[in-house]
Amino acid sequence: MPATIIMGGQWGDEGKGKLTDALAGTASMVVRANGGSNAGHTVKTDRGTFKLHLIPSGMLNDDVDCVIGAGVVIDLATLAEELRDLANRGIDTSRLRISDRAHIVLPYHAQLDRLEEQRRESEEIGTTLRGNGPAYADKVSRHGIRMCDLLDDAILRRKLAIEVDSKNAIFANVFRAEEVDFKQLYQDLMEWAEPIRPLITPTEVLVQDTLAEGKNILIECAQGAMLDIDYGTYPYVTSSSPTSAGACQGAGVAPTQVERILGVYKAYSTRVGAGPMPTELLEDTGEIIRRRGNEYGTTTGRPRRTGWFDGVAARQSGRLNGVTEVALTLLDVLDTFETVSVCTGYTMPNGELHHVPAQLDNLIGAQPQWASSAGWMQDTTELRSFDDLPLNAKMYIDVIQNQIGAPVTYVGVGPAREQLLHR
Prior knowledge:
Largest sheet: 10 strands, mixed
Number of helices: 11
CATH topology of the largest domain: Adenylosuccinate Synthetase, Chain A, domain 1
Distance between the termini: 22 Å
CATH superfamily of the largest domain: Adenylosuccinate Synthetase, subunit A, domain 1
Strand order of the largest sheet: 9-7-5-2-10-1-11-15-19-20
Number of domains: 3
Number of strands: 20
Helix content: 25-40%
Low-confidence stretches: none
CATH class of the largest domain: Alpha Beta
């Protein structure tokens, strides 16, 4: 069987981890394709609630092999801690394999991240300050340290010395900041790498062998399509491609091997950090959504910005990524609202707009065009069948489905596995 991609259709935090966990039972392998420890997937199981940052959500299924692909940037300290915590909670992590081509996020990347954000002042992007952007920048400029370098001390020392010298020149001459201690950094890397080295392997070979055997794999994306480095709301984006095309690249899968592209969307909109959000709700309604949806970052704890469903952005991401079906999560958050709304276009000073423009200044003054309807005013968290959803909830789902242009096949009415309704 071919591959299934699970990707976010908005600005991240859509509940991709829950979908991956729920569908992992149908797969032999789950592959994390992109992002770094700035991502956070919260998964609730009968063994408790798990907050994963680098390890694929499929790890919570005992019979599934898990892979961190080449498109991920890895903070070794975070990964080592995550492995240790899972083992302490009885999760077998020996099923994990890590791409030898994946790049490493080093402490100097986080330091650069903080300094760059400070220098932007009022134009700050709102990164998680974990160093992922600088790590991806090093990758593209061919200055990166990769997981395979941990397997040879001589190679690691040589490459690390070159990069530390380069970064120290920047810290000293550009930022007037504290320089990196090479000896301490090398010792830290050795400590963090100790439990990780046995897991490093050419994962693209494992992925292709699994597909060749006729087994199914899930590709789990981090972040969301509207944070894509090319087609997102640049520069308020992530540093990788959390798209279906990026999933193939990061996981080591050919586009022709993909059968399903499952786009995960919240029943409303959220985003973290700066950037345009035409449907943002700044009054009581937005705070009610934030509170009911527990809209606080898994990684940072920052309150997320909230708003009604942005159908313009959703349609754009659905089309660009070839979404074949939709999982609509957190529908229960809207159970108490008398009226619910979907944005179907933007009214501009000089006309209408039905896509998210590259020049974000063009969104200044944009007013959403609303398709509003009566809410269902009924608790949906105890429902276990799509057919049992209130009629008004089904009508709301149909509006979103038509806006995206792909059928809604899953609806989430709570965090537990059994609260995912299959249509």
